[in-house]
Write a sequence for this structure.
């Protein structure tokens, strides 16, 4: 009798990997769906966690100076809120004072576009241009009537969710700052006793990666905002302060955010000052992005977070696909935390090596 069929070793190994990857993928998918379903809670908590990573150093410093931690937490939170409200107030004031100038520039730009359409290479007559404008206005009017009520209702729901999420993020930040250690200790107790040490050390490493990422991102965002905002101010572009704030907020999505918000500055320059100013504004945005890509990202972000730019791009794309802007905001911090945890676990589980470079516990038949 011949020997029975035997599954090749490669197929056996591939099968074992396949079902484990399927289980991991299914678990990750279920977790993702739960996070999306409870996004009104998970998103504010995530934002609160990022705010905690940014401000916990100030709370710890105040506590070391003898200030009770609860009082230090309240002071830092109030200072953060005052700074945010003050910044939004300055932006609103600039918008109210310069929006009329920008609107006049838009009207003049539309007039120049009409003249070019009539007297330029297109050669559109007055009757044709009037008919096109009337058709556009009629389309906007008919679609606007049908969707006005739905848009108003959606805006009300969105505003309600935003306000609720804002207060959840604030309260979460307060409790994270005040007793984050106790909250984390309770989470660790939910794991089996044998795994608690590694869970605790992995969490500490993830928190170190997160705080490093947030601080590095704030520094990079501040440099981008100052560079593009000052460039807009020197070129006489309206809303320079608002542009700087937009760039600062957009830079929290690394590589992509500051570029997209910088293009807004170019658009405003084009509308308000014309193509030449827009060209110079574009050169300013490119110069700032070159500084970020070749100096800030490698020496600041790379040294503190150690995440490759390709991984950042993939993480942002995946985040946008899953949850839009919020996903792009959260994706890179998540990758930074996972990268820190993986490096930590790899260091903790070092395998002794023989002189030939192979693991000491490798079977003889595999050598």
């Amino acid at each position: 009798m011949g020997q029975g069929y035997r599954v090749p070793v490669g197929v056996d190994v591939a099968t074992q990997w396949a079902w484990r990857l399927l289980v991991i993928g299914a678990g990750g998918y279920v977790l993702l769906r739960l996070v999306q379903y409870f996004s009104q809670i998970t998103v504010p908590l995530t934002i609160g966690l990022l705010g905690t990573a940014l401000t916990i150093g100030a709370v710890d410093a105040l506590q070391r100076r003898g200030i009770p931690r609860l009082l230090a937490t309240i002071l830092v939170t109030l200072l953060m809120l005052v700074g945010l409200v003050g910044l939004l107030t300055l932006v609103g004031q600039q918008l109210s004072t310069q929006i009329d100038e920008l609107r006049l520039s838009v009207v003049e730009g539309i007039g120049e576009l009409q003249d070019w359409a009539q007297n330029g290479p297109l050669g559109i007559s007055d009757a044709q241009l009037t008919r096109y404008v009337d058709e556009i206005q009629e389309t906007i009017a008919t679609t606007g009537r049908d969707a006005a009520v739905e848009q108003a209702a959606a805006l009300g729901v969105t505003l309600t969710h935003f306000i609720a999420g804002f207060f959840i993020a604030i309260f979460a930040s307060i409790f994270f700052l005040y007793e984050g250690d106790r909250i984390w200790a309770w989470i660790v107790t939910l794991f089996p006793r044998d795994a608690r040490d590694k869970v605790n050390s992995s969490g500490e490493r993830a928190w170190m990666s997160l705080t490093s990422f947030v601080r590095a991102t704030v520094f990079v965002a501040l440099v981008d905002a100052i560079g593009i905002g000052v460039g807009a101010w020197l070129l006489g572009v309206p809303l320079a302060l608002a542009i700087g704030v937009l760039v600062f907020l957009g830079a929290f999505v690394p590589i992509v955010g500051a570029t997209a918000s910088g293009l807004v500055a170019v658009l405003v320059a084009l509308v308000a000052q014309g193509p030449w100013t827009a060209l110079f504004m574009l050169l300013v945005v490119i110069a700032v992005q070159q500084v970020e890509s070749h100096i800030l990202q490698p020496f600041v972000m790379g040294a503190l977070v150690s995440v490759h730019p390709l991984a950042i791009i993939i993480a942002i794309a995946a985040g946008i696909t899953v949850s839009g802007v919020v996903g792009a905001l959260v994706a890179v911090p998540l990758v930074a935390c996972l990268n820190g945890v993986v490096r930590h676990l790899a260091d903790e589980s070092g395998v002794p090596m023989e002189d030939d470079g192979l693991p000491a516990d490798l079977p003889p038949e595999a050598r």
About this structure: DSSP finds nine helices and no strands in the chain. Residues 132 and 138 are 10 Å apart (CA to CA). Residues 351-359 have pLDDT under 50 and may be disordered. The radius of gyration is 28 Å.
